[in-house]
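Homework-ish question, so no full write-ups if that breaks the rules, but can someone show me the predicted structure for this set?
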Amino acid sequence: MSSSEHTVSHIHRDDIASRMGMWLFLFTELLLFGGMFILYSVYRYNNPDAFHLAAKELNTIIGTFNTAILLTSSLTMALSITAIQRNNKSLSIFFQLITVVLALAFMVNKYFEWGAKFHHGIYPGSDTLLAKPSGEVLFFGLYYVMTGLHGLHVVIGVGLILLMTYYTAKDVITHDNYMKLESAGLYWHLVDIIWIFLFPLFYLIT
Amino acid sequence: MSDNSHTSHKAHGYGVYVLIWLSLMALTGITVAVAGINFGGLTVATALVIASIKTYLVLTVFMHLRSETVVFKVFIAVAMFFLIISFVLLFTDYSFIVRN
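A: Not a homework solution, just the prediction itself:
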């Protein structure tokens, strides 16, 4: 123990800077999605009625279910960090894998949700969609781009968390060196926060 | 060992996270329930206020902001400030153009 601690002390490590770097990256993500939220606001301001009408096509139940799934996955991610802080490696890995399973469940729901839309002929550039008023075309355009980009982040998150699970298993992530896991957690919670805003803005317009 | 190699935050208990998760779920339920009621112009505002409360909970507890140093809080406040500024300025500018 003491000899390994001596070895570690010679390796330069700055946990605060690691977290700060991660937050900086998250700000760029915030601007990426922020730009889209501005676009959404302006288009909705211009086409309030079309947005309300188009939003009726969305499945509120799947949306609510997916919100619950994502919030729970954020919980398990946070719990996995507490577990590694308490030097409970297997519990941490368990929570990370639950997070991955929940993220995949989210994507499976997305698949069925989008699949149903495609089945009804509502997809970018389809004849059914283009026959609708321009406000509704804008709504579905934003819907596909914003939830699609969010879905891409979920998929990237799955890869990232699996990499962290590998690191945890290989003792690269340990109870006194878990900044990689912490950063992956920060990313995952941001994905959750973006969904917290996407959900009411797309699924809950009455 | 230098001070920064030890992480600055205290370990949170499992219970705190479960409690926050329950609050987040409850707030989601409220948003869905409230969405059916028509508050007129306040409907969107209500949804955004609830979303902001949820975001605050995720930021402070799940993302450990409450146990970070002041530097982090200022850091995030500045980023949020500029995001909101870009929203407000663009919107005032845009509604001005539309009205004229």
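Now go work out the reasoning yourself. Hint: Chain A is about 85% helix and 0% strand.
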